[in-house]
């Protein structure tokens, strides 16, 4: 390990303190997907203050390219959008925007990427190549990565050799989880509209009741995973909403269902999609509907699959940077991401790791008591709040360790 590389972490505490202020500002000012105008302006200003040129790509996406001599090109991505959730964390830097919250940790993703940029700019003698910092909008709606690609991302920045990303999760802060192969599920949201025939509630014989049809569809859908998918395969079909009617004595003329699918395998997804279509059509036909049902797929997230050889390379770097036991082989996550749309557009490998964000004392206590889920607010909940220390520092170190597997020496620096 060279002295230049070891110096990378010497002033990390000062950078963490500086980026803590940015993190709290971002947490106070969340914005919804594809509406992140103030957030993009903040990112733009912070990057400009560092002497970097920026590009706006995909509306509110921001990219800075840091060139530092010959060598490989590494792209690191942070998502920037919040969620329509009302915060109840009680933090002194709680969201100041009613009904909107960084309930998934994207504020931490931005702050950690900025910390990595700070270190690389201060220690240009420790690495060589090109580092692309990409701040992506609209992850929560699977819209942002697609928007950036459609806006010419591939032609506007250098082609990376690898792409990296991370996500703060509910496990012990300061720990890093890596997994090869499928790491986050593919997801589809589905809107189903069933058309019936409205009537007075006292004259059911004059109706084709869409409420009854929708209810039978809900029940039949429960058999897709339990009876049509092998127990060794992963699949989830959730009916998250069923809306119909407005009065107790009126049979409505339509009903709407909202579904969500999660899969790790395209064949399983195809089977679930075919099953949904078959069940909806059959139940409508059985009820004698006069208008075909409508089935619309939206907010579709691709399967996130980490490159196996790159995973091993990154994991080795993490193990040299973090203490024994802090890096572990994690399980797949049934949540979904649109991150891999970006590396797939370039045709390059990627690795997406998990960053622990839970207070270590709370996490260990919950494990001992067997009440982890009950005691710790998870992503997308009103109480979700990663602890800044040591999450922010660990996230910065992880970004640096991953980048230096290409831009630095073959061996990442010890902390």
TrEMBL record:
It holds the Pfam family Peptidase_M20. Its cofactor is Mn(2+). One of its GO terms (molecular function) is N-acetyldiaminopimelate deacetylase activity. Keywords: Hydrolase, Manganese, Metal-binding. InterPro entries: Amidohydrolase, Bact_exopeptidase_dim_dom, Peptidase_M20, Peptidase_M20_dimer. Mn(2+) binds at residues 104, 106, 140, 167. Residues 189-285 form the Peptidase M20 dimerisation domain. The keyword Manganese applies. It comes from the Bacteria. The keyword Metal-binding applies. The Mn(2+) ion enhances activity. GO terms for biological process: diaminopimelate biosynthetic process. This is Amidohydrolase.
């Amino acid at each position: 390990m060279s002295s230049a590389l070891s110096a990378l972490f010497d002033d990390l505490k000062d950078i963490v303190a500086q980026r803590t202020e940015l993190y709290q500002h971002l947490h106070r000012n969340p914005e919804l997907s594809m509406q992140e105008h103030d957030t993009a302006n903040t990112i733009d200003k912070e990057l400009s203050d560092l002497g970097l040129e920026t590009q706006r790509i995909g509306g509110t996406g921001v990219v800075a390219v840091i060139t530092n001599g010959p060598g490989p090109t590494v792209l690191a991505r942070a998502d920037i959008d919040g969620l329509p959730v009302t915060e109840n964390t009680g933090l002194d830097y709680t969201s100041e925007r009613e009904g909107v919250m960084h309930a998934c940790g994207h504020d931490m993703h931005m702050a950690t990427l900025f910390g990595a940029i700070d270190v690389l700019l201060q220690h240009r003698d420790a690495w060589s190549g090109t580092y692309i910092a990409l701040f992506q909008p609209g992850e929560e709606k699977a819209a942002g990565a697609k928007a950036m690609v459609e806006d010419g991302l591939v032609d506007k920045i250098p082609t990376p050799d690898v792409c990296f990303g991370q996500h703060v999760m509910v496990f012990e802060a300061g720990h890093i989880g890596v997994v090869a192969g499928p790491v986050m599920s593919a997801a589809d949201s589905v809107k189903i509209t069933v058309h019936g025939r409205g009537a007075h509630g006292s004259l059911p014989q004059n109706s084709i009741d869409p409420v009854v049809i929708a209810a039978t569809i809900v029940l039949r859908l429960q058999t897709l995973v339990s009876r049509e998918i092998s127990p060794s395969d992963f699949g989830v079909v959730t009916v998250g909403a069923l809306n119909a009617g407005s009065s107790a004595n009126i049979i409505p003329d339509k009903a709407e269902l909202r579904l969500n699918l999660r899969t790790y395998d395209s064949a399983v997804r195809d089977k679930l999609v075919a099953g949904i279509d078959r069940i909806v059509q059959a139940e409508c036909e059985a009820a004698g509907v006069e208008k075909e049902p409508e089935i619309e797929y939206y907010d579709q997230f691709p399967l996130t699959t980490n490159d196996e050889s790159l995973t091993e390379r990154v994991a080795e770097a993490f193990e040299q940077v973090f203490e024994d036991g802090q890096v572990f082989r994690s399980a797949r996550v049934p949540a979904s991401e649109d991150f891999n749309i970006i590396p797939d557009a370039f045709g390059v490998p990627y690795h997406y790791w998990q960053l622990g964000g839970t207070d270590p004392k709370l996490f260990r206590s919950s494990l001992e008591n067997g009440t982890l889920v009950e005691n710790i607010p998870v992503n997308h909940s009103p109480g979700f709040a990663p602890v800044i220390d040591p999450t922010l520092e660990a996230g910065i170190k992880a970004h640096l360790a991953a980048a230096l597997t290409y831009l630095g020496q073959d061996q990442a620096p010890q902390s």
